[in-house]
User: What shape does this take?
Amino acid sequence: MRDSVRQLTVDLGERTYPIIIGQRLLGNYDLTPFVHGKQVMIVTNETVAPLYLESVQACFPGKQVDTVVLPDGERFKDWQTLNQIFDHLLEMRHSRKTTLVALGGGVVGDMTGFAAACYQRGVPFIQIPTTLLSQVDSSVGGKTGINHPLGKNMIGAFHQPEVVLIDTDSLQTLPPREVSAGLAEVIKYGLIRDTEFLGWLERKIESLVALETEALVEAIYQSCACKADVVALDEREGGLRAILNLGHTFGHAIETFAGYGNWLHGEAVGTGMMMAADLSLRQGMISEEDRARVIRIVERANLPGLAPSAMTPEDFRRLMAVDKKNVDGSLRLVLLGALGDAVVTDEVDTLKLDATLRAFCAFHEGENT
Ligand code: NAD
Ligand code: GLY
Assistant: This one.
């Protein structure tokens, strides 16, 4: 019996593409309609390759399928590792008609997308995300790139995929910490735009932590639907799309401080969303009860509730100053006007921000306000 497959569309005119969500897709789903030439280069890493590479190769019958296996880790999301993709493409003589395939989490997805945006001035690519975070967020929307030692995701391009293929079965091999990191981004959608989904998450969060299929499929579908909607309205982040960065300005500061890979992106976003809710309360935008709901749902996803132990408010201020949302030196943050209604604002009260930073820096716990 064929499993049910759910499908969404990211509506972007000539760059429109489907998101296909289901079970048992790897090894069974024919992706050749999305490949325009004869050549395919699958980019994956040393952790994911032994698990899923063979199945994914079978999704391209009749094509020349080559692979490049990268080292695993956020710290390899850099120029040197990106160059390995170009080395393989050139050594295997891939033409400008080649299609790149990202098989893995957000690191592989962002790097492969960026390689596709650059190789021979741009070739198509396919996203096959295998972490929860990449299935609900990074594989959709066309943001691609690498890190710079001075800032995360600072070098990159917008480049939309041809298709996103999400096999929820691949999550069964994911370590629990990575599941929680992905749940941070799922919770984000409830907080920024959809209180009904937030209520559903409050009922189902334990089922999601336990990787129960039915709940997972629904959470991934709702998350992708929210992201597809926002991206269709504002592909290049002229305004609205910035709400997808709730918690990310605090989170990026944590990731950069801790050293790429020591805190997972989703873990940092989880703490960052708590900090955004805390500041929203201090700025009189949400109630104490709203703040408590945010803290509680993030905690129930088993995400950390404080910044790294050695991190100070001054570290936050220094690292947040290089955020991409900042304009002309003024700090711009995503806060909550209400639950389900994120707002982008540069009206940040410095004293209240300081109070939030102190509250989440364990090192300064004695100074909490
Ligand atoms: P990741 O890519 O590092 O994957 C996490 C770990 O899980 C890795 O060790 C990976 O090898 C392993 N893994 C992947 N799939 C697996 C599976 N099915 N079973 C077992 N192990 C598996 O991390 P991530 O959380 O997927 O992505 C984080 C990255 O995504 C960050 O670099 C972040 O900046 C980026 N990101 C990008 C966007 C965007 O819009 N482009 C959005 C959010 C995050
Ligand atoms: N993850 C934020 C964005 O895609 O815009």
Notes: The pocket of glycine (ligand 2) is lined by residues 137, 141, 143, 241, 244-245 (CB under 6 Å). Residues 23 and 168 are 5 Å apart (CA to CA). The chain has a mean pLDDT of 95. The chain has two domains: 6-170, 176-365.
